[in-house]
Amino acid sequence: MPETECCRGARHRLGADEYGAAHPHGAAQHLDDVVDLVLDGPRPHEASTPLTTREHQVAELVAQGETNKEISRALVVALRTAEAHVEHIRGKLGVSSRSQIAAWVVEHRGTAAPPGRT
């Protein structure tokens, strides 16, 4: 796969060694997580949550009993994007149901605030 202009720029700015160390991690990231990182900035190291800010929003809506269709409307995203967020949340939390996501939200309210919230 040819190196993109973006990759060439990153390699130039970081240097070959740092780029080489960071690239495999970045390449393994899901696009939604990368977009969240760009829009929201990095999560603080003290955050006790594996979820991005957007995933926190989706998890809260799941906990309120919203369907994927309702989540997509609330967040103004495609239905497939809402579905993907729910699946990523399940994977990150190691749960298999929406009710388990809701239980996690209730259990972690106040202790796992998303970045930028207090």
Walk me through what this model shows.
The chain has 118 residues and is mainly alpha-helical. The protein has 2 domains: 30 residues, no CATH class; 77 residues, Winged helix-like DNA-binding domain superfamily/Winged helix DNA-binding domain (Arc Repressor Mutant, subunit A), CATH 1.10.10.10. It is built from 7 helices and no strands. Helix 4 packs across helix 6 and helix 5 crosses helix 6. The longest helix has 15 residues. Keywords: DNA-binding, Transcription, Transcription regulation. It holds the Pfam family GerE.
Short characterization:
With 118 residues, the chain is mostly helical. It contains 7 helices and no strands. Helix 1 crosses helix 2, helix 4 crosses helix 6 and helix 4 packs across helix 7.
Radius of gyration: 16 Å
User: Residue ranges: pLDDT <50 for 5 or more in a row?
Assistant: 113-118
Estimate the helix proportion, in percent.
55-70%
CATH uppermost class of the largest domain: Mainly Alpha
Pfam family, one: GerE
Keywords: DNA-binding, Transcription, Transcription regulation
Organism: Pseudonocardia humida
Domain HTH luxR-type: 44-109
